[in-house]
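In response to reviewer comment 3 from the previous cycle, which asked for concrete evidence that the modeling workflow produces usable outputs, we include below a single protein chain processed end to end. The sequence was submitted unchanged, and the resulting structure tokens are shown without manual editing.
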Amino acid sequence: MASSPARVATMPDATFSDASAPGFRELGVSAPLVRALERAGIVRPFPIQEATLPDGIAGRDLLARARTGSGKTLAYGLAVLSRLNGTRALPGHPQGLVLVPTRELAMQVIDDLSSLAEGCELRTRLIAGGMPYTSQIRAIERGVHLVVATPGRLVDLVQRGSIELDQVRITVLDEADQMADMGFMPVVRQLLDLTKPGGQRLLFSATLDGDVDALVREYLRDPARHEVDAPGAAVPTMDHHVLVVHPADRQAVTEQIGARPGRTIFFVRTQAGADRLADRLAARGVAAAALHGGKSQSVRTRTLKSFRDGLTPALVATNVAARGIHVDGISLVVHVDAPADPKDYLHRAGRTARAGESGTVVTLISPKQQREVARMTSKAGVSPQVQRIRPMDEHLVAVTGAREPSGVAWVPSKAAPESPASGARRPVRGSQHRQPRTAGGQGRGRSDRRGAGRTRPTGR
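The workflow returned the following structure tokens.
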């Protein structure tokens, strides 16, 4: 049973550590990992990494809260890999486990960590739904040091007898609040009970209340607690705008925003709404694609790659993309349908202004929604500029870079689907910034709910 956190380290709201702050080597990161970071141009830790790495590498249970895009993936990843450095992979018995709520986040984490792990001769594996069982089982049988998994698929493999967790001595719960929101806590508890007694637990979450707090009390022992910013703290490089638009002008305004230069994510409520908007944008000449839980995993992987590569600069998504999806250079997030609550707002908004970059968040509303949206943004801790706009008016163009679409229908290329991520070695990318920038990480989407029901989340 856990006791109360021993200490709280609350750091100022900042994107980068001070230039005079300790580097990764001074924080205790193993030498092979430091060299791998240097090869990737990662030269300075972010505040969440600076705060948590010493305790994590020392083997202490850890409770950390930081907003999306703050570098949490490397904060726990470097601690786990440093502690596993020099160990031998045991067939069927991983020694490290990262639990995440969704396939997209699992894919992001494995991408961020696999190249670093390779520098330490550590093997990693992605275990998630929507992908073949056979390759996952064979990799586990050969032996891996670290598994990154969604709860549903992992418990499925445990029940099949394909993996044993009794040698897992380091367990990370990433985005614990979303796992609670999605109803995963019974499965998470089941998996934690199977790990090695006395093992280290690292819990990272945007919020630390409700079921997350109960999990902390039950499973963490005298944890060090670190908070790098307050819940809902404003991101200094992110601008927030509420654009009040007449319903008759809404379609034209959305199309004009879609025609802007740069990467844009449009968030809508439903899968059907995402498909309709993507089709409408494409018909008007905007390179756009839809991303939601109704798409096959291969289509979702291909869609994200096209968006990441800039071939499809407009992505229309349900909340499946609000957590766990990190793509560099997203300069605008548009809530076409206003989010349901402050947490959804913040996680959608967190797709932009990541790791020190600047970004803009726009919410399109009708005049009747003003009071409701004002309450929601206030609870989210942001103070947006509110302005009534018309198609292609001066304010719309100034805020979003809107342009008139060409009107010539855009047709996607017939590129072959990319194989789903499987833990194969890839270059460090995304949240690992090239010099002179620093290390970040994160990322969210639909999860595999096998073993935990079949409810599809509305919400990285």
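The radius of gyration is 21 Å. We consider this sufficient to address the reviewer's concern, and the full set will be provided in the supplementary archive.
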